[in-house]
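Okay, any thoughts on this one?
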Amino acid sequence: MPIDATRPYDDQNIFAKILRGEIPSTRVYEDEHAIAFHDINPQAPTHLLVIPRGPYVSWDDFSARASDAEIAGFVRAVGAVARAAGAVAPGYRLMANIGADGGQEVPHLHVHVFAGKALGPMLAR
């Protein structure tokens, strides 16, 4: 169910629980600003999620409230995850769903990294 990205951060969301170690995940990357793990319902042969450690609901929330170090660290983490997955060549897709119209389902900023096959058009026509 898509969520309202303008609502306050809910520290009981599934990604907050993953960050606290209350729910297991298969982590592929971890540093002071971000973690990355395999999606439990992959939509491509490679489907990873990268999330900031801080309590940010959306890209808008993150870009407005995160420190410069958090922003730089998160963006670098996304690139590091794609490189480590071997996705740079032949290519990959990044996607961040924001708000109800964007299809965001978990109220914690996350970037999907899709790779491992030709992904087709960006949006269904």
